[in-house]
Amino acid sequence: MENGKIKIPDNLPYPTEPFEDFYFRFKNTREMVKDPEWDRIYSIYYELSPDEMDIPIGEKVEDLNAFPAEKQIEEVIKCARSFFYFCHRYVKILHPKFGTIPFMLYKYQRRVIREFEAKRFNMISKFRQGGLSTVAVLWGLWKCMFQKDQQIYFLSKTDREALAARRAMDNFPYWIYDASNADITKHEKSFNDVGSKICFYTPEAARGKSATYIMIDEAAFIEKMDEHWKAMYPVIATGGHIEIISTVNGLGNWYEETYHEAQAGRNFFNIIELDYWEHPVYANPEWAEAMRANLGEKGWQQEVLRDFLGSGDTYISSTVISQYDRTVRNVAPSRTAFSKWTNESQQKQDFEDGALWIWKEPMVGHEYIIGADCAEGVGKDGDNSCFEIIDATSLEQVAEFYSNLVPPNVFAQIINQIGIYYNTATVAVENNAIGGAVINCLSNDMGYEAIYYEARKTSSRLGIKVGPSNRPILLESMQSRLMTGAVRINSQRLVNELKTFIYSPQKKRAEAIKGKHDDAIMALCLALYVRDERTRGMPVSSDMSDTGIPLKKSPYDEIKKEIMEGGATGWLDARGGDTFSIGEGDMPRKNDAILKEFGW
C-alpha cells in the first residue's frame, strides 16, 4: 500500500481490537504469548525479554507492596538488569479508556533504547505521538535509580515529561523507590543512594551544566538551537551522550541540517528512523486515511511521513532544494583559500577551512561572470560579503567566496584578483552603500576594466542598484533556472540559504527568515541577471563611482598568493609579466593581442 512516499510492507497484519483488550484476557505473559493471535499479529509490534515472560497481568501497587523482603531484593536485581522488565512490571501509564495500565514497550521503542545504549550520539526521526519522549524520560529515570553517578538532563520547552516522570514515581511500590532517600522538586529528581540525578530544563537553563546524558525533545522546534548546541557540546564532548528526539519541521533549522550531515557521514550522529506503520494502531489503513485528512497534506508529510519538504513556503520549490541538497553534499571544492576569513560554523567539513571555494579552474576561451553582494565584515550574526562565479556558457557555479569577517577593501582586492584569474571576468556588484565603496576601489584604485554598469538615458552607473522595482526580476533570473535545472549549483552554503529563503505573503516579497541570510542568493542573482542582459547586448564598461574606501596594498600580495596556490600551473604567467602588479599599466585585457595590433 502506498501512503505518500512511505510504502507499508505488503500484507502487514494489524490489530482489529485494542491490544489492551487482548492483553487483559490472560493471567500472565507466558500464557499470552502462547495464543495464536500473538504470533499472527501482536508479535510483529511487541516483544518480550526473558525476564518479562512470567509477569502476572493485572497486578496492583498493593500487590507489589506486599512482596516479602526476599522477593523485593530479587525484583530490584531484575529491574536493575533490564529497563524493559522495569517498565513492563513497575511503570504505569494513564490510558484514556483502560485507566492505569502497565507500560509494555513497542518493538520500535525497544530498538531506540538499544541504540541509546550502543551509541553516544543518537538522533531520532520520528512520527507524531510515537511515545518516544516518554520512553526517553523513563529510561533516564531508570538509569538514575539503578546506576551510580548519572547526571541526566532532559531539555524541553514544556514540563510535560517532568510530570510523566513524577506520575511514574507515584505508582512505584515503596521498596523500589525510597522517597526519604531522594530529593524531588519540579525540575530535579535526585537519588542520593547512587549519587544520580535527572533534571528537566529548557535549553537556556541547562547551559554550563555537567552531564553524562543530554536528551533534547523536539529539537527541530527550539529557537536558536544551533547556539544552544555550541554551548552544550563541550559538556558532553569528553565522554557524555546526546539523544535528539524530534519530528521534522521544514528546512534550514539545526535539526534538519544535522540530520542530513549525519546521513552523509559528516558528523557523529547515529540516525534512528521510525516509520509510522511500526505502531500497531497506525498500521491500519483507515487510521492513515483519517489522519491524513485531519492533518492536511503538509501536516501529514511533516508529522507522519517525517518529510523535510512538507513544511515551509520556500521561494524555490522544496523538492528542488532537496535535489540540490543531495547533489552538493557529494561535491567538495577542488581547493579552498582565505582560511582567515572563514565564518564560525557549528559543523565543520573537511573542506570548510576557507572562505573561497573553487570547483573548477578557469579555462582558455571561457567567459565568466562574478556577482558580488557586499557587507560590512562585522563577524558573527552580520551579513556576508559573497561573490559567486559562473561560467557564462554552461551556467555552472565554478567558485564562491563567503565571509562575514572580510573588510570591504580586502573584499574588493579579492574580487579584483579572482576576476583577473577568471579571464578578466565581468564583475557585477550590488551598488548599495558598501557596494559603492567596493566598486570605487575596483574602478579607481585598481583599474579593473570589466565592471558591469547600468546604462541610463542620461548617465550610466557602475554596478546594479537593487530595489523594489528590479529585485523581483533578479530573483526570477535565479528561480527559473533553478527550477528547470539550467544552472549547476555546487555550494552547500548557497543551498543552505535557499532552505530559509521564503515568500512572505504579509510583505509580498521573498526574503530570508529572521536570523538567516540571503547573501549567496543575491550574488548568484546578480551573476545570472548580467548573463541575461549580456545576451541582449548590454554593454560592459568601467565607469567612475563617487564613494570610496582606502586601498591598502599590504594584503594584496597575500591575496595573490592564496588564489594562485594550487591553481592551474602557469595559467596567468603564460600571459607574460607580473599580471598582478598595481599601477604598472599592464593588466591583461580581453582580446589583448588584437587590440595591440591596432595600437590600443
List the SSEs and their pairings.
Elements: E1 2-3, E2 6-7, H1 19-23, H2 29-33, H3 36-40, H4 61-65, H5 69-81, H6 83-90, E3 92-95, E4 99-102, H7 107-118, E5 121-125, H8 132-146, E6 151-155, H9 160-170, E7 182-184, E8 188-191, E9 196-201, E10 213-217, H10 225-236, E11 241-246, H11 254-263, E12 270-273, H12 285-303, H13 318-328, E13 335-337, E14 356-358, E15 368-373, E16 385-391, E17 397-403, H14 408-421, E18 426-429, H15 433-445, E19 451-455, E20 460-462, H16 471-484, H17 492-499, E21 501-504, E22 509-512, H18 519-535, E23 540-541, H19 556-564, H20 592-597
Parallel strand pairs: 5-11, 5-12, 6-9, 6-10, 10-11, 15-18
Antiparallel strand pairs: 1-2, 3-4, 7-8, 8-9, 13-14, 14-17, 15-16, 16-17, 19-20, 19-23, 21-22
Helix pairs in contact: 5-6, 8-9, 13-17, 14-15, 14-19, 16-18
Which descriptors would you attach to this protein?
single chain; 600 residues; alpha/beta; Rossmann fold; Nucleotidyltransferase, domain 5; 2 domains; six-stranded mixed sheet; 35% helix
General description of the model:
35% of the residues lie in helices and 16% in strands. The strands form six sheets. The chain has an eight-stranded mixed beta sheet with strand order 7-8-9-6-10-11-5-12, with helices on both faces. The protein has a six-stranded mixed beta sheet with strand order 13-14-17-16-15-18. The longest helix is centred in the middle third of the chain and has 19 residues.
